[in-house]
Amino acid sequence: MWRRLYLCLVLVRLYFALSPSYIHPDEHFQGPEIIAGEVFGYPSYKTWEFTSSQPIRSIFPFWLIYGWPLTVLKWIWEGLGYGPVPPSIAFYTLRLLMFLLSFILGDWAIHELIPAINQRRTAIILVASSYVTWTFQTHTFSNSIETLVVLWSLVLIIRLRDNIQDTQASASGVLAFLGVLGVFNRITFPAFLVIPLAQIVPGLYYKPLRIPVMLFVGLFTLAVAITMDTEYYSGRRPHLRGFHNDAVITPWNNLVYNADESNLAKHGLHPFWQHFVANLPQLIGPAIPLLFFSSTKNTLFWSGVGGIAIISAFRHQEPRFLLPAVPLLLSSIKVPRRGARWWAGLWVLFNVLAGTLFGVYHQGGAVPSQTWISQQHNIESVVWWKTYSPPRWLLDGKNHEVTTTDLMGMPGQHMIAQLEESAACESAANGTLLVAPSSATFLDAFTGDATQHSEIVFTRQWQYSRHIGLDDLDFGDDGVWPTLQRVIGRRGLTIWRVSRQC
């Protein structure tokens, strides 16, 4: 019975992986936006993390995780005579890749970490039924990669801890490799391993040959990572003679940046308890009480709790920073027999609602809109309003032809004023597009039947219905219920052609 349930949950995960929802800009701009430009030559938009004098994002994990699958895709696609790879194909290839990594490596790691059969089955079902697994883990987040690296690091740590009779050179070397990969992927990675790593110290004493193996593999991987980053950011291949002066060490730059609270203030400061009190409940919902009253205080539990406690020292805190802790904590809880059906019902309801929101509707029209725009001709500029930043790499190389302007949450009147300046005449060959949520009632005065006097004309071109933008919430002015009615009842993303009467 549990195998059938697990198979159904895997299919649910695949469905959400292939749904074009958009949870956070970093899933594009800290991965695909960069690597797609390198592999396919697409003009891509680089955020400040890649363009500052002290860049904080490493290219090493991008090539390792995303680069080779896209390169293979390019060889196959072009080898079959189909021409350049369309960005939409590359997008869904990466989503399928993340699904396979989550399904194979993630679930396999849990199988390895929990030896007791009944507890293992419970853990696998809980993790497989979590909306975090369906959505975040199947998107191209560095946090999703961090989750997998943490899980397999724990697998190797426990192997080394439980067997101090053998050197286990392979496990020692792979652990060192994963350690370097994890740090270059995200500097928060070591926080989840601080407590477990203490358990392998006795093994290093009894089998000291593990130390040179770890040092050799770790230093070699470190050298490769730093060389790749230095070549990427400097534009030239580094030489050994001047390596110590020219080397770009992105994890160190990242740590220095995040240690300065004035930098974190640009992204939002949160109290130290934000992760435990607000962010973790958003991710695991009804499982929170079981962590306190019905859980096994094992290595997985303390790895998750310890990691959350350590990264809470950084004042900027987002729920996705806790992704590595989710499978660890869910694998530690025990569902009590008393009230199990009620709890299971709450768990299913919580994850179905959250999965539907984040896996289907959340900014769900952004990717399809870019795909549609890439297929149009005579488009000079595209203005995005009240949406997440659009992934430029999905424009299929038209970045040089199409100017993308991200107005974010700019007040409506200012947005209209900017459109009046940029829109061409109705008879002009090239046009301007406005991409905006259908729930933006401000536009009704310009697009409805009784439009107010304006120099610009809006013509609906395309609409995608499965789109909800939480950035369009305005509880303060509109009230809670009217806001929800507007955002959910008028869900969708609309593309308007904007022109001036002249």
Can you walk me through this structure?
- By secondary structure, this protein is of the alpha/beta class.
- The chain folds into two domains: 2-361, no CATH class; 366-500, no CATH class.
- 56% of the residues lie in helices and 7% in strands.
- The protein contains 26 helices and six strands.
- Strands 1, 2, 3, 4, 5 and 6 form a six-stranded mixed beta sheet that branches.
- Helix 5 packs across helix 6 (87-113).
- The longest helix is centred in the first third of the chain and has 27 residues, at 87-113.
- The termini are far apart.
- It comes from Zasmidium cellare ATCC 36951.
- It is an enzyme of class 2 (transferase).
- Its EC number is 2.4.1.-.
- One of its GO terms (molecular function) is alpha-1,2-mannosyltransferase activity.
- Pathway: Glycolipid biosynthesis; glycosylphosphatidylinositol-anchor biosynthesis.
* Uncertain segments: none
Proportion of helical residues: 55-70%
The shape is globular
Mean pLDDT: 90
Number of individual domains: 2
The largest sheet, given as strand count, sense and whether it forms a barrel, is: 6 strands, mixed
* Distance between the amino and carboxyl termini: 69 Å
- Quick one: how many beta strands? 6
Radius of gyration: 25 Å
- Class by helix and strand content? alpha/beta
User: How many individual helices?
Assistant: 26
Beta-strand percent range: 5-15%
